[in-house]
Specification:
473 residues; 35 strands; 42% strand; six-stranded antiparallel β-sheet; four-stranded antiparallel β-sheet; mainly beta; 1 helix
Length: 473
């Protein structure tokens, strides 16, 4: 995912000249689109209001910042901003309720991604700390970038974080902490990088693209058209890139690209894939600053929640989330589409079991690690496969019909609307048995009454089971 670019003053001096050139080009495209729209020459496809990605709702951002990028991972949406005072990160478990977090530095954070249990963000400005990482989206740590470049986009794939910049340099990291400079295929204004199908693909504002199988060795490829490409994504076996114009291009392999027609001639700034749908958002236009496509080829206009400069869109858990950098339209700097599906619960802890007569009572507990909250657990006996269900908030269930004298173990899985976890470890073995016969009771005592007697009994001494009743004769 890529986000809208900051002012050239935010850039390191070595990239400022390139940035100014591209900025003039960008705003020329925007001005042209606005002029055409004002003349009534744009033909808008009919808007359908049915499926996810079609209807959008405004949400309140955590702060009045210029939000540049949003991603999803570990059950959390995370967005980063290029402005703000120490609060250039915000997080949300549902895309609706957002909380400010403290960024590692007040840099112009341009892109954020998630991989291997880690959030990684890169910046277009700052000293050498143009990378920050977080295991939870809340606590962030500054990292040293491979070079003081204007880093514009970061992605994760095949065990590697890869970032591109407005320069001839790429940087890579296996852990998000230690970064190494790599040589780009050309000294271009690289805007966005993604991974899919075993290939990294980057697109540039200077009308070109490059590919790499390993993030290290890059090869120039020919774009489908001579446009300023802003964002690229991968989904359902297809690379899709959008431009600051009415053009989309698609490729099944990242090398051979075909031009497609966008829904409108807007400055399309970001594209993502999820739930069987490609979704793109625009920084300019009327109220239809969203377009969707099931195949990357045929695109339909959708009505955005507000006429903001939408610069980044992501998908997670059944929900599309977009952020805007138009701070003057606060607080509606987030919009969502779809219904959130909670992440699958973590694998439960190993259950405990207590044997009974042809039955066992099993107690379960949530597992550690990230994941959604379980709404139920399914316990399975081995051997035999008999099951019982624990419905939260209960924490135990009983499996009946077991064979006395047979040793059993039990595993548990956790379930919610997002799916079912992997099975837990097996419990300690237990063996259902008949209860022991109680020992002979102590000699009873009796008190006579009118045609009656009251008899008192007491347990006997010796080994045996616990009596549940006594019969007095």
């Amino acid at each position: 995912m890529h986000t809208w670019s900051p002012a050239s003053s935010d850039l390191h001096p070595q990239t400022r000249g390139q940035r100014l050139h591209a900025t003039r080009l960008r705003w020329l495209l925007i001005a042209c689109a606005a002029l055409i729209g004002a003349l009534g020459l744009l033909v808008m496809p009919a808007t359908s209001l049915a499926a996810t990605g079609d209807t959008w709702t405004s949400q309140t951002a955590a702060a009045n910042n210029e939000w540049r990028s949003v991603t999803y991972g570990g059950g959390l949406f995370v967005a980063v901003a290029q402005s703000g005072d120490g609060n250039r990160v915000m997080t949300s478990p549902d895309g609706i309720n957002w909380t400010s977090q403290t960024s590692a530095a007040n840099n112009a954070w341009s892109s954020v991604t998630y991989g291997n249990g880690l959030f990684v963000a890169v910046a277009q400005s700052g000293d050498d700390d143009r990378v920050m990482t977080s295991p939870d989206g809340i606590n962030w740590t500054s990292r040293t970038a491979a070079a003081d470049n204007g880093w514009t986009s970061v992605t994760y794939g095949n065990g590697l974080f890869v970032a591109v910049a407005w320069s001839s340099t790429v940087m890579t990291s296996p852990d998000g902490i230690n970064w190494t400079s790599q040589t780009a295929a050309a000294d271009n204004l690289w805007n966005s990088v993604t991974y899919g199908g075993g290939l990294f693909v980057a697109v540039a504002a200077s009308n070109t693209l490059m590919t790499s199988p390993n993030g290290i060795n890059w090869t120039s490829q020919t774009a489908a058209a001579d446009y300023a490409w802003s964002s690229v994504t991968y989904g359902n076996g297809l690379f899709v890139a959008v431009a600051w114009s009415n053009t989309v291009m698609t490729s099944p392999n990242g090398i051979n690209w075909t031009s497609q027609t966008a829904a409108t001639d807007y400055a399309w700034s970001s594209v993502t894939y999820g739930g069987g749908l490609f979704v793109a958002v625009a920084a300019t236009g009327d109220d239809d600053r969203v377009m969707t496509s099931p195949d990357g080829i045929n695109w339909t206009s959708r009505t955005a929640a507000a006429d903001n400069e939408w610069v980044s869109v992501t998908y997670g858990g059944g929900l599309f989330v977009a952020v805007a950098q138009s701070a003057f339209r606060f607080p509606n700097l987030v919009m969502t589409s779809g219904t959130l599906i909670p992440p699958t619960p973590a694998t439960p802890a190993t259950p405990t079991a207590v044997a009974g007569n042809t039955e066992a009572t099993i107690t379960v507990a949530p597992g550690s690690g990230s994941g959604g909250t379980a709404t139920s657990y399914t316990v399975t006996a081995a051997p035999g496969g008999a099951t019982c269900t624990v419905t939260v908030p209960s924490d135990a269930c009983t499996i009946t019909g077991l064979t006395n004298g047979t040793s059993y173990t039990f595993t548990a899985t956790a379930t919610n609307a997002g799916g079912t976890s992997a099975a837990s470890g097996a419990s300690d073995a237990i063996t259902p048995t008949l209860p022991l016969v109680p020992p002979t009771p102590a000699t009873p005592t009796a008190v006579a009454g009118n045609t009656e007697a009251t008899i008192t009994v007491a347990p006997g001494s010796g080994s045996g089971g616990t009596a549940t009743s006594y019969t007095v004769t």
